Amino acid sequence: MSRYTAQSIMKEGYSVIVLNDAHHDATAEVIPEAGNNLYRFESGGHEVILQPVSLKMLRNEPFANFKYGTPILFPPNRVKNGRFIFRGRTYCFPLNEPPSNHLHGEICSRAWEVLEYGATEELGAYVVSRFRYELHSDIMAYFPHSITFTFTYRLFEGRLHLNGTIVNEGEDEAPFAFGLHPYFSIPFDGGEELMLTVPAMEEWPVTNEAFVTGRPSITPFSRSLKEGVAISSYPQLGCSLLSLEEEDGNRVCRLEMKDRGYSIAYQIDRQFPFMVLFRPDWASAFSLEPYTAVTDAFNLPYEHELTGVRGIRSREEVSFRTCLWVDSFL
């Protein structure tokens, strides 16, 4: 019997792709028709990704596509007034966070196409999914670029890898700002010592909506994150915006549950120079959100090299990788 399996099952009205690694007691579940959301990952008996109590919540609860699992963000976070200008073109996004913000884009709520799933001893268990902007005329009406996202989730040796490519198949350069929003299941309500380690370089001053209010600087918090910071008292709905160290091409962040003897490790590559920290108030969780640009970057008055503002040219392909796993130390 193979240690790896990949299967499609029906769960609460959704077609779910289930990846399994029996040797490491690891399971990942992805819902392609709900924004390709990696809504569950468990390893070694530990719940890593926060999942909704019921999948029906993804249909019925306001903003549910932003609140559980691993939403895919394009653009990440908020666009003030839903409006910005890039290369002389004005973009007006729908105000999906009334009264005046666009929040997180729409690909985290739209259906993705499953291209392939399977399992082999050499590759592990995997699923490949795709989202093409040109198939969504309502999005193309305000973002007229043929962008194609192709994601591969792969469970191998107990680690969950995400390899992604984003391609501009159109003729015009498109504004590019991308991020991920994993909700990590953290026992805030147990009175435990919780430690966070992030290879942070600087911290940006931000509002409670993560809008930037000034230039970044080295702060006591950003300096301490390299060695580890206790986050047990991190405020609900609190957020921080960080610039990450440039030297390390594969940065590893850790959430450590000292009393329980394990940590969640999250590795991201150089495509993500920024990270938002966020603690929700609707669940016991903490988010480490890697971004290619800071919140509302296209509307900021700072140099693009600082904020991450960039375009994706015609026929250009952007690739990225992340990896997620659990380490035990007891």
From TrEMBL:
Pfam family for this entry, one: Aldose_epim
Annotated InterPro entries: Aldose_1/G6P_1-epimerase, Gal_mutarotase_sf_dom, GH-type_carb-bd
Superkingdom: Bacteria
The protein's name: Aldose 1-epimerase
Organism: Paenibacillus hexagrammi
